[in-house]
Amino acid sequence: MSNIIECRSLNFDYGEGSTKTSVLKNLNFKIQTNEKIAIIGQSGCGKSTLLNLMAGLDNPFDGEVLINNTNISKLKEHQKTELRAQNLGFVYQFHHLLNDFSSIYNTALPLLINGSDNNEALLKAENILKKVGLENRTNHKPSELSGGERQRVAIARAMITAPACLLADEPTGNLDEKNARDVLDLIIELNNNQSTALLIVTHDLSIANKMERKFDLANGYLSEK
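and the corresponding structure tokens:
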């Protein structure tokens, strides 16, 4: 299997001088095609920071991140954006949908931004909204959807480009127990159907236990459990 994301000797600090805190220390990690991985750890341990580094949204103090064998630190910002769009999908604790747009346009947005034909993008959005059980909510705006429905739209938006890897940061953290379970099952189902690697960052062991591999992030170090 090929590496979709690889981290080599990552270091990341907050602050300077006497206030400096080491968040990540000489961290090495990789995720390969079709893998399902969870990174667990307490709030504030650096899980989201690590995810942002993997996506090229933040820069490490030392070390390298490679996406599909491309060292993102050597890329210009527009090249990083293009590489992310081609390879990664994102789901966060909060849905980050555009309030003025319907479900179908929120879902189609990554394709439209990339220059896809409008009708083709909307057709793909309609199809994936069916897969997440929202075929009757395509024209509803976020304010007209439940929390679970909004998160399903966010998942559809993340998966519409068939990314090589889905990065999910506490994707069920803002949902009740039933919706959280349904959303997680949906993510795993789409992951299986689209042969997408899945990396979930969470503090919830019940979520982590559904993954094939689990890593613990503590005191700046990442270790497989």
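(Above: one complete record from the training split.) Helices lie at 47-54, 77-87, 103-113, 118-131, 147-159, 177-194, 205-208.
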